[in-house]
Each structure stands twice: as structure tokens, then as C-alpha cells.
Design goal:
Helix content: 25-40%
Number of helices: 8
Number of domains: 1
Order of helices and strands: EHHEHEHHHEHHE
Radius of gyration: 16 Å
CATH class: Alpha Beta
CATH topology: Rossmann fold
Structural class: alpha/beta
Number of strands: 5
Distance between the termini: 23 Å
Length: 193
């Protein structure tokens, strides 16, 4: 059995302001460094074979903190790029809710049906993430790997691995520093719904 630790990076200033970050490359804030350090400490007794992280400063910094003091492979995967929010990048979540209430609600209830202006759909992210996960599941049939990816990509990864609902991606957007352990049976693939 493979165990996957799904880790959200520590917070950035954008998370703390409840701004949409998507693919923006933003470093950890002071609070985010503390969150990532705490997650690394909480996982210190667990042997990790490999750590994979998506592009972006906060993911890289969080992965580095997790790897500190371990003999572990660390690798950035371009295919774990977060959702491209296009013109929504940098906007306050409340700004989208106020200015585009129907689109906000639609993204909240049926995120797969919305494409941010100049961005990409959740379906595009699901397809990219499923390919990446299936490669990792073929490579690692047993042991423990860590995936350090921000929201909403972390919700997509959890959905693909567990078949749970995506949930409210607006609420998830600013969730940081959390981790969860997902057990995956050998031979399983990340299925698209």
C-alpha cells in the first residue's frame, strides 16, 4: 500500500488577505513559515521516500522545510501547477462574490462548469493532475510520498485519490498548512469522475 501525505503549503500574504493566488509565485509569509515548520515537525517521525511539489515559491519553501534533516528525494513537478485563475489572480475572493455573484455561486456549487476569464477550468486541472498522479502511482506502489500543493489543486488531488466531492473551492482557496494522509491500494489509478 502507498501512503500519500497531501500537504498544503504554509500561508502567503495573499492567503492572509483572502486573495486568489492560483499560479502566482508568492513566498511564504512569516505565519506561513511557522505553519510549514509545524507541519514538518508533526510529520518528523514518519519516513518519507520522496517529496513532490508544484511550481511556486510557497510550495518549494514548504517542501524544503519538510525535507530538512531527512534523506529524501525532492522534486518539482510542472504537472502539479495550480489552477490558473486568469484575470481573477490577485483579486479578493469577496470582490468576485460581490461583482460576479452568479459566477461566484456557480464556481462554489459546480466548479467544473466555470472558466475564469483568461484562466483554465477545473476539468483541465483534473486531467493534468490525474496524469501526474498516475505516473506517481506507477512509480511508487508502496511506501510514503508527500505532495506539497496549494489549494484549489490540493482539493482536486484529494478528489482524484479518494473520489470525495471537490467541496467549496472558494472556502478551500485560503486553506494553508494542513496535511492529510491518504492510503492508496497498489495498482489503483487516479480516476477522473
Amino acid at each position: 500500500m502507498l501512503r500519500i501525505i497531501l500537504i498544503r503549503p504554509g500561508s502567503t500574504e495573499f492567503d492572509e488577505q483572502r486573495r486568489i493566488k492560483g499560479t502566482l509565485d508568492i513566498p511564504l509569509s512569516e505565519h506561513g513559515q511557522a505553519e510549514a515548520t509545524e507541519a514538518a515537525r508533526a510529520l518528523s517521525d514518519l519516513h518519507i521516500d520522496s517529496i513532490y511539489y508544484g511550481p511556486g515559491c510557497a510550495s518549494r519553501q514548504s517542501a524544503d522545510l519538510l525535507a530538512s534533516g531527512r534523506r529524501v528525494k525532492l522534486k518539482e513537478l510542472e504537472s502539479l501547477t495550480n489552477l490558473n485563475h486568469g484575470l481573477w489572480h490577485g483579486k479578493l475572493i469577496d470582490e468576485v462574490r460581490r461583482n460576479q455573484p452568479k459566477v461566484y455561486r456557480q464556481f462554489q456549487e459546480h466548479p467544473e462548469s466555470v472558466c475564469p476569464p483568461g484562466g483554465e477550468t477545473v476539468d483541465c486541472v483534473e486531467q493534468r493532475a490525474a496524469k501526474a498522479l498516475n505516473r506517481l502511482l506507477r512509480k511508487h506502489r508502496h511506501g510514503v510520498i508527500a505532495l506539497v500543493v496549494p489549494e484549489p489543486l490540493a482539493s482536486v488531488v484529494r478528489h482524484l485519490l479518494t473520489n470525495h466531492d471537490l467541496g467549496d473551492l472558494w472556502r478551500a482557496e485560503c486553506e494553508t498548512g494542513r496535511w492529510e494522509l491518504i492510503e492508496v491500494e497498489a495498482g489503483r489509478t487516479a480516476a477522473l469522475a
